[in-house]
Design a protein that fits this description.
alpha/beta, Spore Coat Polysaccharide Biosynthesis Protein SpsA, Chain A, 8-stranded mixed beta sheet, two-stranded antiparallel ribbon, 14 helices
Amino acid sequence: MNKSLLPMTDTPLVSIVLCTYNGEKYLRQQLDTLITQTYENVEIIAVDDCSSDSTYRILQQYAALHPRIHVYKNDHNIGFAKNFEIAFGYSKGELIAFCDQDDLWHPEKIELQVNAIGDNQLIYHDSEFIDEHGKRFCYYNSEVVNESGSNYNYKMSDVYNFYKGNDPEVFLLQNCVSGHAIMARRDLLKHALPFNKEFYHDWWLSYVAVNIGTIDFIPKCLVKYRRHAESSTVKDRKAETKGQKLKQDIKWIAYCLKFKSNKNPKFVKRLHDLYSGYTSHFLSLRLWWLLKQNAHKLYYLSKRSEISQQRDVNRFIWGVRSRDFWYTHIKKKPEKVFNI
C-alpha cells in the first residue's frame, strides 16, 4: 500500500504490545516483522516476564538498534494476562495492537488496521496457520495434523465465521477473535481491565467491545499464526474434558453477567441460570428451548453445518443427572461422565 494514501491527520500512535516469556526460539523472526511495518507511527512495548533463556537479551539487542522498541522486565513472574496489563501501563498509543512472541506479521498489518478501524472499538483479521518451521499446515479440532486437502483448516476463517457488529450474545458461548489479530482503542481497555486469568483475554475484549460499541474484521490473512506442541492454547484444549468445559462455560457466562455495561443482562442471567440447572436435572427443556431459539446467535461463529449445530443443541434436552444415571446404572460405568 502507498503510504501517501494515508493522510497525516489519520496517523495516530499505535502501541504494539509484546509480552514475552522464554521465547528465544522464534522471537527474532517476530521482531523482524514488527520493525518492517509500513506504518511508521508506532512504538513497540516489550515486557519480559522473567525469562530463563536469552529472550530478554534478544529484546535488548533489538532495542539498541531500533529506538521505537522499549524493553522492560518484571521483577518476578506474573503470568500472561497480568503481563499484558503491565505493558499497557508503559504504552502511550491511542490504538493498541496485541502481539505474541512467535508469529510472523504481514508488513501492512498495522497500516491496514488503522485504515479500517473507523468508529469501531476493535478491528481484527484472518490468520494463516504455520508450524514451528514457518510452513503452512492444517490445524484441525485443536490438533496439529499433517493432512492436506479442502476439508482441512489452513486459516482461522476455515474454522470460524467472522463477526462484525454489536451483538454480545454472539460471544457468550464461542469466540472467533484471536489476540494477535486485535487492534483496539485505548478507551476499550478502561472497560475491560483488569483481565481475569481464568478466561482468554481476547474473548473478553471482544465481549466488552460489542457491549460498548462495534467490532469489524479484515478478511485477509495478516499474520502467520504459529501453532506448535508447546502452545498453551493447544495444551489447554487437548486436556479439557466435556465436564470441565461445561464448568468453564458456566463460569464464563457468570463473569459476562457481572459486566456493568451489559446490553442484555436479563438474557445473560437466564442463560446462566439454565446452564447451572443443567448440572442437577434429568430434563433440561427450558435450556434446550432457549438455545434452539437463539442458535443463530449463540452458535453463529462455529463454521459447522446446520444439522451439526442442531445436534449440539439437542444434546441439552437431557440434563447431566440423566446422563450420569445412564452410564452408572445402564451402561454400568461407575464414573460420572460430567464431574461437576
